Amino acid sequence: MSARAASATQVRLRTGGNKFAAYDAIVIGSGPNGFSSAITLARRGHSVLVVEGQDTIGGGLRTRELTLPGFRHDVCATVLAMTTLSPFMRSVDWGEYGVEWAVPHYPLAHPLDGGRAAVQTTNVAGTVNRLGQDGAGWERMLGPLDAHTPALMEDLLGPLPFPPKHPMLMAQFGVRAAFSAQLTARTLFRSEEARALFLGHAAHSILPLTKPFTSAVGSLLAASAHCTGWPVARGGSQKLGDAMARCFTDLGGEIVTGWQVEHIDELPRAKAYLFDTSPYALARIAASRLPAAFCDRLNAYRFGPGAFKLDLALSDPIPWAAEECRSAGTVHVCGGPDEIVASEAAAWSQAPTEKPFVLVVQPTVFDPSRAPEGKHTCWAYCHVPNNATIDMAEPILAQIERFAPGFRDTILATHTISPGAFQGYNPNYVGGDIIGGVQDLGQMFTRPVARWNPYTTPARDLYICSASTPPGAGIHGMCGYFAAQAALRQILR
After folding, report:
1. What is the CATH number of the domain that holds 106?
2. Domain match, 42 and 55 both
3. Do residue 202 and residue 240 come from a single domain?
4. Domains in the chain: how many in total?
5. Judgement on whether residues 196 and 321 belong to the same structural domain of the protein
6. Cβ-contact 49, 28 below 8 angstroms
7. Which of 73, 410, 445, 462 is deepest in the core (most CB within 10 A)?
8. Are residue 406 and residue 296 in the same domain, yes or no?
9. Packing angle between helix 337-346 and helix 192-202, nearest 10 degrees?
10. Of 425, 446, 462, the domain-final residue
């Protein structure tokens, strides 16, 4: 068992009593939700230990030199769209722990054939002006939310609120949220540009865009882009992970890395255990402490499509044909609306499309610290069937080349992460599902199982705090925060 902490100092487990001296709480997993749980509990004066299976902390926030020396790539999350909107994340001054935010000129662009592009600016008015005849539809959808996005997040970033803190705002959001993204795009917009821009947002749901409530994801992400500009952590997402670790240890917390927990009985004694893991891992590790029927429900939890990702070291910026794309942090690459819908539907089949919807992030355009001087990095992935083994590198490269002629000539090195490799990197990404499970109507607010308090289990001292709980994926820490609140109410008074 390793005892290396995030700061590279040695952490020694307390000894005494029969085997180990007790902690108030132990958190299994050091992703953003694990640390938000740990920080919330440590703030209340509780003794907390974080146990991480890998040799480094961070979960979805790790940054590594995946291609060439000096090229820093985020293994999973790069654009931290929800971080600066999260009530938990906003409760900490991350600048005190070394985090600097870098914000692109445009949060998002979507190139189309013929050198055209749809562009979202950092405010509703700017986007409305760029959408021409469809500006009125964009204003109708997002205008009422524009000045109130942080308040809206207080209701949406958590379990289903009843009653909501902001009922009128929730009502305005809900008017269109229940519809499919495809229907909303067809109803509100006429142009290929506006429809593609909205559907690209909705595709982050990793659901078929004909499904109900996919409009909610599209509207929420579009609103967040207007509000925050979709920042990244300067130097890599690991900077935020390290900052969370330092915040936690400053509060007296302890971290152990390199400890793959196989059974709950191997852990020190504690009043509460919080699992930043998949439901499957909770059922396996704590099987002796949970009813068999509850474990069966955890094992019935549904995971969705996986991700196939490329990290690229580049000699030059991506030569997008549409000039606006060169100033965008994120570029959604997939042609028109029908192509986006077809691609996301194919991810639920066994035959991925040859023209995938590709999410491209070009962080060095506005954060040059991630690569040697004058060089660049590219982060690109598409959705594929869960645990798919097909190599999507060529289709991804072809899609980018389609809208950025000469792109292949800039590639210095390539690193590939398949769905299986994603699960190997982080066991929470079952079959390559990087959002912690399907977020459709049947599993949005009942994740991981239907309970009055979704963070609890039949064992009073066991809790789950991963992205497999509400509100789901996103570097916002709210799953961990709410799980910690449950533990504080029930057992850590």
Report:
1. 3.90.660
2. yes
3. no
4. 2
5. yes
6. no
7. 73
8. no
9. 20
10. 425
Omega cis (within 30) before 471: yes
Distance CA 174, CA 193 (A): 24
Structural domain includes residue 431: no
**Same-domain pairing of 195 and 313:** yes
One-letter amino acid for residue 476 of the chain: H
- Structural domain including 476 reads 23-61+236-301+438-490
Assign residue 477 the CATH number of its domain. 3.50.50.60
| Token digits of residue 172 | 């305005």
442 and 473 inside one domain: yes
Answer whether residue 87 is part of any domain: no
List the pLDDT tens digit at each of the 493 positions of the chain. 333 333 333 344 443 333 445 899 999 999 999 999 999 999 999 999 999 999 999 999 999 999 999 999 999 999 999 999 999 999 999 999 999 999 999 999 999 999 999 999 999 999 999 999 999 999 999 988 887 888 888 888 877 666 677 777 777 777 778 899 999 999 999 999 999 999 999 999 999 999 999 999 999 999 999 999 999 999 999 999 999 999 999 999 999 999 999 999 999 999 999 999 999 999 999 999 999 999 999 999 999 999 999 999 999 999 999 999 999 999 999 999 999 999 999 999 978 789 999 999 999 999 999 999 999 999 999 999 999 999 999 999 999 999 999 999 999 999 999 999 999 999 999 999 999 999 998 888 789 999 999 999 999 999 999 999 999 999 999 999 999 999 999 998 7
For the question of whether the overall pTM of this predicted structure is more than 0.85, the answer is yes
* 418 and 313 together in one domain: yes
In a shared domain, residues 180 and 314: yes
Helix (H), strand (E), coil (C) string for the chain? CCCECCCCCECCCCECCCCECCEEEEEECCCHHHHHHHHHHHHCCCCEEEECCCCCCCHHHCEECCCCCCCCEECCCCCCCCHHHCCCHHHCCHHHHCCCEECCCEEEEEEECCCEEEEECCCHHHHHHHCHHHHHHHHHHHHHHHHHHHHHHHHHCCCCCCCCCCHHHHHHHHHHHCCCHHHHHHHHCCCHHHHHHHHHHHHHHCCCCCCCCHHHHHHHHHHHHHHHCCCEECCCCHHHHHHHHHHHHHCCCEEECCCCCCCHHHCCCEEEEEECCCHHHHHHHCHHHCCHHHHHHHHCCCCCCEEEEEEEEECCCCCCCCHHHHHEEEEEECCCHHHHHHHHHHCCCCCCCCCCCEEEECHHHCCHHHCCCCCEEEEEEEEECCCCCCCCHHHHHHHHHHHCCCHHHHEEEEEEECHHHHHHHCCCCHHHCCCCCCCCCCCCCCCCCCCCCCCECCCCCEEECCCCCCCCCCCCCHHHHHHHHHHHHHCCC
Residue 5 lies in a domain: no
